Amino acid sequence: MRPIWPPRAFTGADGVKHNSRMSDDPAKAEAAVAEETELVFEQPLNERMRTFLRIDFLYGQATYHNERASEWGSRAAVASLIDILAIITRGDTRADALKDLERHLTLLNEFQAKPKVDGARLRTVMSTLIRLRTELLAAGSAWLQPLKESEFLAAIKHRSAIPGGTCEFDLPDYFYWLQQPAEVRAQTFNEWLTRLRPLCDSISELLWLTRQNGRARDEVAKGGVFHITFDRESPVQLLRISLPQSLGLYPEISGSHYRSSVRFLTWNGLDARPTQTTADVPFRLSCCS
């Protein structure tokens, strides 16, 4: 069965690469660009990586909405912050992050003696990790206490479990705060986020390093299915699968840090169930250890 793939590009007389489906119609040209968009799907293979990815996702969501300078933006930012707190208080995420920072520093330190290593870049990365470790240690063991003891945040957390439970008649003090000037709300939120920033910034850097450790390779899922067996001597923490959006497919990944299976499903819209493709699917795979 022939593999499916987006149309090839060609170089025109103007020296510019064009898609074989592109035309002078701006709408069609825009659609062609969208076809070439590559989607990256990530699958964590252990609980620590799942926690890190969720915190990083919520951290990005919180900072994004806080910058919107609107009542609804502030609501969404606070909801993300409360979700981060819920995750962190379930385990010792700070200790896990410190352990990973130490491990990466030890590994990078060994690279300094190896030839053909970009010393300047290596020192920059190590300097960043040392700074993050210092900030995380300086936060102390009681770093979350002010947020845990906040009656204001506790009330929002409690009412958030009820659909629509944070509206103005349920939480008049929350409603009053939301009516304050945008800069006042942003300042208050940033004070809360400052407590979480050493951990969140450390996690963002650790995820970046994990992704950098993965070497991408081209693979083909025969009949839309692909099986992966991992080397037990080098545990894989994160799988990354890249494929063009124009294929209209997405991967469903299952398994553990020993082996995983991937099947590619066809997106049939919101009103129809996805179906597994039977075509051979070329994709790019990164196993990040």
Rg from Cα:
23 Å
Question: What is the CATH topology assignment of the largest domain?
Answer: YacF-like
Can you give the helix content as a percent range?
40-55%
Helix and strand element order: EEHEHHHHHHHHEEEEEEE
CATH superfamily of the largest domain: YacF-like
Tell me about the biggest sheet? 4 strands, antiparallel
CATH architecture of the largest domain: Orthogonal Bundle
Please report the total strand number as a whole number. 10
CATH class category of the largest domain: Mainly Alpha
Query: What percentage of the residues does DSSP assign to strands (E)?
Result: 15-25%
Low-confidence stretches: 1-24, 31-35
Strand order of the largest sheet: 3-6-10-4
Shape: globular
Structural class, by secondary structure, is alpha+beta
Number of domains: 2
Ends apart, CA distance between termini: 33 Å
Helical stretch tally: 9
Mean of residue pLDDT?
A: 85
Describe the structure.
The chain is α+β, with helices and mostly antiparallel strands and 289 residues long. The protein has 2 domains: 47-211, YacF-like (Orthogonal Bundle), CATH 1.10.3900; 215-289, YacF-like (Sandwich). 48% of the residues lie in helices and 20% in strands. The chain contains 9 helices and 10 strands. It has helices spanning 26-35, 47-66, 71-88, 93-111, 119-138, 145-148, 151-160, 172-178, 182-212, and strands spanning 9-11, 17-19, 38-44, 215-221, 225-229, 238-244, 249-255, 259-266, 275-276, 281-288.
Summarize the structure.
The chain has 289 residues and is an alpha+beta fold. It is built from nine helices and ten strands. Helix 3 packs across helix 9.
